[in-house]
Design brief:
The complex is a heterodimer of chains A (342) and B (169).
Chain A (H helix, E strand, L loop, with lengths): L1 H36 L15 H11 L10 H17 L10 E3 L2 E3 L9 H11 L1 H10 L3 H32 L4 H10 L8 H14 L24 H26 L15 H27 L7 H29 L4
Antiparallel strand pairs in A: 1-2
Chain B lengths: L2 H22 L3 H21 L3 H26 L11 H24 L16 H11 L1 H28 L1
Helix pairs in contact in B: 1-2, 2-3
Classes of the chains: A mainly alpha (342), B mainly alpha (169).
Chain lengths: 342, 169
């Protein structure tokens, strides 16, 4: 028992470090990809291919002057970015990162918390993620920050609804809320994208909106607003807000890969003739590869599509995605009824 | 003390402290934030009773949806200097009387109840998703469906009210 607890703590640390490292190098990847799409060189001064750029950026953030506006609550002002960062990191706990290893007869799962309400946990973390933005925006004591916070939170609330409904259609198929089981089911059967193409599309769009990425980056919209909810933030507190966006992207890519694209499973994995730990290691690598593809899609979309107008954003969320998600639940129910799965 | 007992006392302290802070803090935004803390500690209590589903739904619905809207409205209203509304004297007296009578009922209930805390709070699987779903959809299907129709009616009513207001102005 003690062994498992120590192992879980180590796994927590590994997932945390990998998430942060991936997020750091996603900033580099984003700038490289942007420069590639815009036919320029991008960061290439710090280290070979600019690989030390994230470290340089982080140091720059740390050494910038810290500002706390007057007439604002200092504690809440600090709590905002901290809470946002915390909720960004929390979802990683329920994602199955691999099939697990067996060493000396002891089984070590690659999932920190194998709880049977994994999906609900995820939705809960997403829904409380709004508080970081709202607290930060309100405690800035700046009307632009407050308006930015209200914009951001109304966007996130609106798209959570469609996201939850898209997941309900998936849960109807899986019959479980446990993420580990959902991934394991996709080993025996096709990946759930085959059964839930519409649900995946809705989930993808909602993931873009929840992570505040373009074309849904209205909370920030640097070219039309002052800077959204983090107008008054400087130094590493601003860094936390920006960095959490990349963590959110990484985690939501992992969620999409495990819910709809088979997680760590890959085609013909049992025909390779590999066994046990080696296969498990390859599976984890494949899972990270799937996450990378989704991250690429996130960045690709950002540098391709222009931003929505605010009324278009609300119309899309409430009048298009919500009815589509309900229609998807209805169709899923009908198909399940007629194929005798119900 | 076992780990669950420590967790129980910590969560209880947190719940009572934050609930007191809700009514004692002057700024309504702080009240809402303390209320969120209260909800979290109550969700923690659900977890201690192994009612994972209830805990998750409690967080999603109360902390994640309702309190966000509360905070939203209060932040919007609280843009200007806070002006405390003057309440009439008879309203104050009525409030005190009703609060005292609720207090009396609660005290009488507590004095009659016997304390017996379960020895193993984590035991029991009545709160797991499967069992709760079976109970709701097999034994209590009709009340459950009626409650959802009631919610639908409330939703339609809210949409209708907000529509009417916009067409007037």
């Amino acid at each position: 028992m003690d062994q498992i607890i120590i192992y879980k703590i180590i796994l927590c640390a590994i997932v945390f470090v990998v998430t942060l490292g991936a997020a750091a190098y996603m900033t580099w990847g984003e700038r490289k990809l942007a420069s590639w799409l815009q036919d320029r060189v991008g960061p290439d001064r710090a280290g070979p291919f600019g690989l030390l750029q994230p470290i340089a950026d982080g140091l720059k953030m740390l050494f910038k002057e810290e500002m706390i506006p007057t007439h604002s609550n200092k504690w809440l002002f600090i709590l905002g970015p901290s809470f946002f960062m915390l909720t960004a990191c929390m979802t990683g706990a329920v994602i199955p990162w691999g099939a697990g290893f067996t060493i000396d007869g002891t089984y070590f799962p690659m999932q920190i918390a194998d709880i049977n309400i994994g999906l609900l946990y995820m939705l809960g973390v997403v829904s409380i993620g709004v508080y970081g933005i709202m607290i930060g925006g309100w405690s800035s004591n700046n009307k632009f920050a407050l308006l930015g916070a209200l914009r951001a939170s109304s966007q996130m609330i609106s798209y959570e609804v469609a996201m939850g409904l898209a997941l309900i259609a998936l849960v109807m198929l899986t019959g479980t809320l446990n993420l580990g089981e959902i991934v394991a089911q996709q080993d025996a059967d096709y990946a759930y994208i085959v059964y839930q193409p519409l649900g995946f599309l809705i989930f993808l769009i909602c993931a873009f909106a929840e992570t505040n990425r373009a074309p849904f980056d209205l909370p920030e919209s640097e070219s039309e607003l002052v800077g959204g909810f983090h107008t008054e933030y400087s130094s590493m507190k601003l860094g936390f807000f920006l960095f959490a966006e990349y963590i959110n992207m990484f985690i939501s890519s992992a969620v999409m890969a495990s819910l709809y694209f088979g997680g760590y499973n890959f085609p013909f994995q049992h025909e390779l003739g590999l066994e046990g730990n080696l296969l498990s290691a390859i599976q984890t690598a494949v899972f990270l590869g799937k996450i990378l593809i989704f991250i690429f899609v996130f960045m690709w979309v950002r540098w391709t599509l222009p931003r929505f107008r605010y009324d278009q954003l609300m119309n899309l969320g409430w009048k298009v995605l919500l009815p589509l998600a309900i229609f998807n639940i209805f169709i899923t129910g009908l198909v399940m009824y007629f194929t005798g799965k119900l | 003390m076992s780990l669950t007992e420590i967790a129980f006392y910590f969560l209880s302290f947190l719940a009572i402290f934050s609930a007191l802070a809700v009514i004692l803090s002057k700024n309504p935004v702080y009240s809402v934030l303390y209320l969120i803390v209260t909800f979290f500690s109550i969700a923690g209590h659900y977890f201690l009773m192994n009612a994972q589903f209830l805990a998750a739904v409690h967080i999603i619905v109360y902390a994640g949806a309702i309190m966000v809207l509360f905070l939203y409205v209060i932040m919007m209203l609280n843009l200007n200097e806070e002006q405390e509304e003057k309440t009439k004297n008879w309203v104050k007296i009525a409030a005190v009387v009703s609060a005292c009578s609720i207090m009396l009922i609660m005290v009488s209930l507590i004095s009659k109840s016997t304390y017996n805390m379960g020895k193993a709070p984590m035991a029991g699987d009545a709160g797991l998703v499967q069992n709760l779903g079976k109970v709701l959809y097999k034994d209590y299907l009709l009340p459950f469906e009626l409650a959802s129709v009631l919610f639908l009616a409330a939703m339609v009513g809210a949409v209708y009210l907000s529509k009417k207001e916009t067409s007037k102005s």
